[in-house]
Amino acid sequence: MARRRSDADLPVPGGTVTAPHLLNLVGHTPVLFVDTPLPYPHDGFWAKVECLSPGGMKARAAVSMLTGARSRGELRPGAPVVESTSGTLGVGLAFAGQALGHPVVLVVDGELEPSMRALLRAYGARLEVVDRPHPVGGWQQARLDRLAEVRAGLPGSYWPDQYHNPDNAAGYTGLADEIAGQVDAVDVLVCSVGTGGHSAGLARALRRYWPALRLVGVDTVGSTIFGQPARTRLMRGLGSSIHPRNVDYRAFDEVHWVGPAEAVESCRRLATGSFVTGGWSTGAVARVAAWTARTRPGARVLTVFPDGPHRYLDSIFDDGYCTRHGLLGPTRGHPVEIHHPQAVEVTRWSRCRVVVDPVGPVGPGGAPHTGPAAQGTEPATPHTGAAGGARVPAWN
Ligand SMILES: Cc1ncc(COP(=O)(O)O)c(C=O)c1O
């Protein structure tokens, strides 16, 4: 591999391939036109197939967070990177760590699939496995607590803090540029929301091309992000039990909460009808994108499939698992409409055309973020308030 002199020579993910470097593997993913019924026929939507990039979609965020920290001197050459993850960002960080020369320590939990643990270790990451959830904040808070302990024993380590780090969202500018070169126009962008990174970064960058773009957020039932009460969640990747500051509430025109049975049905139909499929978030966004294409004829709808199916072979694609969790029954082809995100607790696919920041204006443009810029501080405490924040105008 050719030697480079400084970070200024690093390739930009998705940019023109100019020199041999691991980072050149990121991006350049295809878009696929999906018209498989999900479960009803629809006019079709575009899917950006991010599983064909090493590390999936989150490699873009990982590279952006590490290069951003290096440029500010927060991450010194060769220093360890420590992060809490439910899996996908872990692969992205393992990749970015190798590409940039940093050891990676990942705090994961007992729910992480054994295949994923093996993969992360194979890529050279050290795993710290949390074996019981926090009584209030669940697995996510338990991981953040362990992360603080690990960092205390690793002086000079860097914590990307994917939930609150603006470099996460900024990492998706290249994704937007790729899309703009692949499709004529996008009217509606459908994004899963976990840390909020790709919905915020992609919508911001795509609106430079198409200012009237509508953004539809897709969360899971039991997730607090858009104001619902926290419940145990089967679905991983999208959804959260905290309120990540990367979620750009003002950017959204509507939100959907999808349940696991609905995601399973979509993943399985995608696999047999379009070959390209993925995990919980892929099933959820595909469901909502198909419904949007069906109910808004003529709209050009695009979504992002964040990862592929392999880590879900023992869950989404396993009949025993799905039967045990009651996920194989028939599902409805349309969402329940609710008038406010906090009006009722949703238990199956639901839609709301009002988007509210449940903890007030702490997202981009709000209070200063306390993530990576405040390295050395405790992990952010989950917000548990449910008071209504800014009401965001909705479309029809
Ligand atoms: C598989 C998968 N899908 C979707 C998401 C949500 O993306 P974001 O964190 O950019 O909101 C994540 C986040 O970790 C993920 O791992």
UniProtKB/TrEMBL annotation:
Keyword Disulfide bond: no
Keyword terms, alphabetized: Pyridoxal phosphate
Disordered, as annotated region: 360-396
InterPro entries named among the record's database cross-references: Cys_Synth/Cystath_Beta-Synth, TrpB-like_PALP, TrpB-like_PALP_sf
Domain Tryptophan synthase beta chain-like PALP: 25-307
Low complexity biased stretches: 369-385
Pfam families named in the record: PALP
Cofactor(s) the protein requires to work: pyridoxal 5'-phosphate
Name of the protein: Pyridoxal-phosphate dependent enzyme
Species: Micromonospora echinofusca
Taxonomy of the source species: Bacteria, Bacillati, Actinomycetota, Actinomycetes, Micromonosporales
